[in-house]
């Protein structure tokens, strides 16, 4: 055996390097998680004892008892009118009104997203006129109650019975009858969309500003156009910021449709249930019926929002794989000449990854 090889063997063997006259310490224990000790014992497992929270269990039990008491008490009270709830929950008038509410929500949100996107682009524009107009729009529609706005849109047909086009103080060139705002459904969609657009513009603007400017600069260096940069680089990253609040706004819009009575539009879910209760003198059961329909639509929207967020969160490290709670297995002990020792292969085959 050559001299360099024998020197390496002496250095790699701790038993030979130890002092011959020194006795081993019997009180010394191998470190947990360290493999390849002198005695060859497996690493010690760390036993983690969870903290106890007795008051948390007490509060949970009290809440469950309180909920059970409320449910039992409500089930026995005749004022709730559970028989009338079962009678009108699938009534044809209620179901048709529920579809009207759903279409109001869909049309209003589509208009709000389109207008909000335009407002967000105007806010981010270097043109001071466009930026000022967008800021004024947002200031007005976010600063006034939605109920007041709906009342105003309901009387627009009285203020502007016709639309005219021409030079002021002269005979108009074109006169168009105001047939848009005489349709209460269209008026409700316009009023809800214009109000919601002010909030959607801030959501879209926040999402676009969350993307680092270096992304756009890198896209420009790759000879990508502005449209390609927005479509393939900026918007996909901004969607992770835009989608969660947008889903909340859709759910909020579904409930805001109950305010269209200010126009007045009475064919929505709340309007029809209120009309039936005025005839049957059963306001509480009809309120429960309307609430159950609102809860149904809200639950469906929340499930859809969950899957959309999961779709756009791919590649961010936040998607749940279902393996977060598993405990990693301890690493196997290193064998002489194996992985982890100088001179051994890096995997289970020579010259590559396992």
What does this structure look like?
The protein is an all-alpha fold and 354 residues long. 60% of the residues lie in helices and 2% in strands. It is built from 13 helices and 2 strands. The chain has a two-stranded antiparallel sheet with strand order 1-2. β1 (162-165) and β2 form a beta hairpin. α11 (226-256) packs antiparallel against α13 (283-312) and α12 (269-280) runs antiparallel to α13 (283-312). The model is unreliable at 1-18 and 321-354 (pLDDT under 50).
Can you give keywords for this protein?
single chain; 354 residues; mainly alpha; two-stranded antiparallel sheet; 60% helix; flat; disordered N terminus
SSE diagram, text form:
Layout: H1 3-12, H2 14-17, H3 54-76, H4 82-88, H5 92-124, H6 128-143, H7 146-154, H8 156-159, E1 162-165, E2 174-177, H9 184-209, H10 213-221, H11 226-256, H12 269-280, H13 283-312
Antiparallel strand pairs: 1-2
Helix pairs in contact: 4-13, 5-6, 5-9, 5-11, 5-12, 6-9, 7-9, 9-11, 10-11, 11-13, 12-13
Short account of what is shown:
With 354 residues, the protein is an all-alpha fold. The protein contains 13 helices and two strands.
Give the SSE order as H and E letters.
HHHHHHHHEEHHHHH
SS field, number of helical segments: 13
Category from helices, strands and their pairing:
mainly alpha
Task: State the share of residues found in helices, binned by percent.
Answer: 55-70%
Low-confidence spans: 1-18, 321-354
What profile does the largest beta sheet have?
A: 2 strands, antiparallel
Our Rg estimate from Cα atoms comes to: 35 Å
Which percent range describes the beta-strand content? under 5%
Q: How are the strands ordered across the major sheet?
A: 1-2
Question: How does the overall form come out from the CA principal axes?
Answer: flat
């Amino acid at each position: 055996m050559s001299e360099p090889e024998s020197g390496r063997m002496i250095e790699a063997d701790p038993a030979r390097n130890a002092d011959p006259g020194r006795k081993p310490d019997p009180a010394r224990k191998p470190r947990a998680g360290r493999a390849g000790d002198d005695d060859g014992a497996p690493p010690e497992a760390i036993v983690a004892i969870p903290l106890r929270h007795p008051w948390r269990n007490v509060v949970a039990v009290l809440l469950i008892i309180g909920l059970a008491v409320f449910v039992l008490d409500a089930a026995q009270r005749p004022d709730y009118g559970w028989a009338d709830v079962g009678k009108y929950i699938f009534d044809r008038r209620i179901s048709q009104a529920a579809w009207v509410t759903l279409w109001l929500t869909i049309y209003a949100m589509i208009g709000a997203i389109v207008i909000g996107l335009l407002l967000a682009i105007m806010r981010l524009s270097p043109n001071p006129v466009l930026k000022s107009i967008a800021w004024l729009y947002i200031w007005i529609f976010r600063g006034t109650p939605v109920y007041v706005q709906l009342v105003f849109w309901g009387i627009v047909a009285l203020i502007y019975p016709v639309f005219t086009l021409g030079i002021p103080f002269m005979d108009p060139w074109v006169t168009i009858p105001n047939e848009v705002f005489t349709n209460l459904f269209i008026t409700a969609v316009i009023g809800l969309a214009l109000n919601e657009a002010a909030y959607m513009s801030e959501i879209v603007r926040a999402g676009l500003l969350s993307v680092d400017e270096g992304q756009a600069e890198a896209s420009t260096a790759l000879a990508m156009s502005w449209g390609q940069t927005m479509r393939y680089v900026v918007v996909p990253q901004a969607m992770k910021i835009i989608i969660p609040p947008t889903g909340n706004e859709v759910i909020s819009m579904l409930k805001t449709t109950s305010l269209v009575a200010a126009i007045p539009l009475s064919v929505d879910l709340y309007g029809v249930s209120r009309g039936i209760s005025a005839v049957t003198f059963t306001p509480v059961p009809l309120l429960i019926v309307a609430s159950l329909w609102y809860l149904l639509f809200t639950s469906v929207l929340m499930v859809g929002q969950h899957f959309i967020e999961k779709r756009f969160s791919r590649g961010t490290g936040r998607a749940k794989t279902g393996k977060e709670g598993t405990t990693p297995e301890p690493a196997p002990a290193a064998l002489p000449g194996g992985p982890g020792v100088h001179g051994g292969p890096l995997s289970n085959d020579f010259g590559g990854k396992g």
